[in-house]
Write a structure and sequence with these properties.
Blueprint lengths: L33 H5 L4 E12 L2 E17 L16 E15 L2 E12 L4 E11 L2 E9 L3 E8 L6 E6 L5 E2 L3 H4 L13 E7 L2 H7 L6 E7 L4 E5 L2 E12 L3 E8 L6 E9 L6 E16 L33
Parallel strand pairs: 9-10
Antiparallel strand pairs: 1-2, 1-16, 2-3, 3-4, 4-5, 5-6, 6-7, 7-8, 10-11, 11-13, 12-13, 13-14, 14-15, 15-16
């Protein structure tokens, strides 16, 4: 059965259980099942203080990660309008939308990555990415088949747009997929002290900002032997550290909350110095500022932007004259 948040209980009935405690002291003796937690007619919303290097300078901004289950069409690779009628073609997807917004001088970047995984095993079905800034729009779609990745890219730069097919690598993953896999929502991705090496598709935003074509690299992911305490704007957490090293000279670090639902409380990426293997220039970092479980699609009325405070996010700054008046 597919349970989607849009037809859930009224918002007022949820207020008493909206917010996830900030302090994570560690994993409990038993964790919720994936179904009991993620099929509750709500989405997980996580706001982040965000920094990114663009045009050689550090930029500040904010990010929000929206994670929710929904029925998904296998053939059309979009949300299913009638899953009961097309049950054979429908699977439950765990969708993660990651929105990154940051300023570069006079103009800003607004980007969004959507990752669609089969919730039964977190295998990759689709990734879409969009970027909007004052120069123009970019849209990329990756559809993952059994033996290939199909890319469609629309760009405002001459020579970048077009379709391409890349062979799928056995056991391959996407960099964007790490935001789900490392959380271990159906069991640990790695045991403490363990590491593994996999084929990796670099993330859409990394390739976009560097104007790099789609191509496989290799990644080694290692989990630290012991958890550590991590302090971020949302609070102090017991977290497991995952170190990520790629063959395209990048080093990542992900701190994952020990307690279920194992939120990403901090992440960072750096480039490495050629021939030295040490971190050199920070390219992206984010820290959890707040989190809640909400039926956000119902919170579109004037005044409900106050829910952003629970995520550590700020609403858009609009002149008061542009806001609708209550009658």
């Amino acid at each position: 059965m597919f349970r989607h948040a849009r037809h859930g209980a009224a918002v007022a009935m949820l207020i008493a259980a909206l917010f996830i405690p900030a302090l994570g002291s560690g994993a409990g003796a038993s964790e919720p099942t994936f179904e009991s937690h993620w099929q509750d007619d709500r989405a997980e919303l996580a706001g982040y203080r965000y920094r990114v290097t663009r045009y050689g300078e550090a930029r500040t901004g904010q990010a929000v990660m929206i994670t929710v289950t929904e029925p998904f069409s296998e053939s059309k690779r979009v949300k299913s309008d009638n899953p009961a009628k097309h049950a054979a073609d429908t699977f439950e997807a765990l969708k993660m939308n990651l929105v990154r917004d940051f300023q570069t001088g006079i103009y800003d970047y607004n980007t969004m990555t959507s990752v669609f995984l089969r919730s039964r095993d977190f295998s990759l079905s689709k990734i879409s990415f969009s970027s909007a800034e004052w120069c123009g729009h970019v849209y990329e779609e990756l559809l993952v088949d059994r033996n290939a990745v199909r890319q469609t890219l629309h760009s405002y730069f001459e020579g970048e747009s077009g379709d391409r097919t890349l062979p799928w690598q056995a056991s391959g993953i996407s960099e964007d997929q790490l935001f789900i896999l490392l959380r271990g929502l159906r069991g640990e991705f790695l045991r403490p002290g363990e590491k593994k090496t996999l084929p990796l598709l670099p993330s859409s935003i990394v390739r976009r900002l560097a104007h790099r074509p789609l191509a496989w690299v290799s990644v080694t992911v290692e989990r630290a032997a012991k958890p550590e305490r991590v302090k971020v704007p949302a609070g102090t957490f017991a977290a497991d550290l995952y170190l990520v090293k790629t063959t395209d000279s990048r080093v990542g670090a992900f701190w994952v909350e020990r307690a279920y639902p194992h939120r990403i409380v901090r992440w960072s990426w750096s480039t490495t110095v050629a021939g030295k293997g040490r971190a050199n220039e920070a390219t992206e970092s984010a820290e959890l500022a707040g989190s809640a479980r909400l039926p956000y699609w119902e919170l579109h009325a004037e005044g409900q932007e106050t829910y952003l405070k629970s995520l550590g996010l700020s609403p858009l700054s609009l002149p008061s004259a542009t806001l609708p008046r209550r009658r």
